[in-house]
Amino acid sequence: MNFDKELDARGLNCPLPILRTKKSLAELSTGQILKISATDPGAVKDFQAFAKQTGNELLSSAQNDAEFVFYMKKS
C-alpha cells in the first residue's frame, strides 16, 4: 500500500505509539496515509479505538511475527 509518511513505533509501549501517531497525523494533510510499525501487543485495540475516537480511518492492520503494521488515513 502506498503511504505518505512512515512512523516507527517499534519498542514503544502504550500510550507512546498512539501519541506519536497523533503527532504524525497532525503533520499530514487530509487524505494522506500514515504507515505505523509497532511491537506493543495492545496496539491493535489501541489503534482501533484511536480511529473511532478521532475519525481517522484505519485502512488496515496486519501482524508479521511480533510486529504490527497499520495504515491510517487522515480525515
- Euclidean distance between termini CA atoms: 18 Å
Q: State the fourth-level CATH superfamily.
A: TusA-like domain
The chain-level structural class is alpha+beta
How many individual domains? 1
At CATH level 2, the architecture is 2-Layer Sandwich
Main β-sheet, spatial strand arrangement: 1-2-4-3
Q: List SSEs in N-to-C order.
A: EHEHEE
The averaged pLDDT comes out at 97
CATH class reads Alpha Beta
CATH topology: Translation Initiation Factor IF3
Strand-residue proportion: 25-35%
Layout of helices and strands:
Elements: E1 5-9, H1 16-26, E2 33-38, H2 43-54, E3 57-64, E4 67-73
Parallel strand pairs: 1-2
Antiparallel strand pairs: 2-4, 3-4
Brief overview, please?
This protein has 75 residues and is α+β, with helices and mostly antiparallel strands.
Can you walk me through this structure?
The protein is an alpha+beta fold and 75 residues long. The protein has a single domain, classed as TusA-like domain (Translation Initiation Factor IF3, 2-Layer Sandwich), CATH 3.30.110. The protein is built from 2 helices and 4 strands. Strands 1-2-4-3 form a 4-stranded mixed β-sheet, with helices on one face. It starts with a strand and ends with a strand.
Core attributes:
75 residues, alpha+beta, Translation Initiation Factor IF3, 31% helix, 35% strand
